[in-house]
Amino acid sequence: MADLQQISRVTFADTFGDANTEADLSAYLNDAYSQSQLRKELTNPNSQFFFVFKDEILAGYLKVNVLDAQTEKMGQSDLEVQRIYILPQYKRHGLGRKLINQAITIAQKLHKTGIWLGVWENNLGAIAFYQQLGFKQVGDHVFTLGNSPQRDLILEKRIEIKGV
User: Known Gene3D superfamilies for this protein (predicted)?
Assistant: First the structure.
């Protein structure tokens, strides 16, 4: 649990820290990545976590949601990629692609026809990465970080169900 909490806080702060106040960032980190919140997420049967290692060191993780665990009502035929978190020193090592491929494999096993995610509109590197993998914008929503409302783009990728 401590490793999950630590990697969540470090990766989130790395991505969003410079664009937010310390108070907003701290409030969000303390709420979203508290031990009780992470325990709740880990025990939700409609959520799954997958960890990725580089040279036997925890480098990041993937969190996916289905059904009522999804953060938006996208339907029963979709799987949400809620988090792809990679520590800064392990970015651009192909780990994000491995985690997206893991999400696609899970979706196919669950007979889902699409995967979706929310990405901050100012995270241009992540948007370009997802677009390169075939994701397209299908909407947006407001993500509140502390007291700061921010816009996330909702990106989706349609997938084929293997063996059907």
Answer: 3.40.630.30
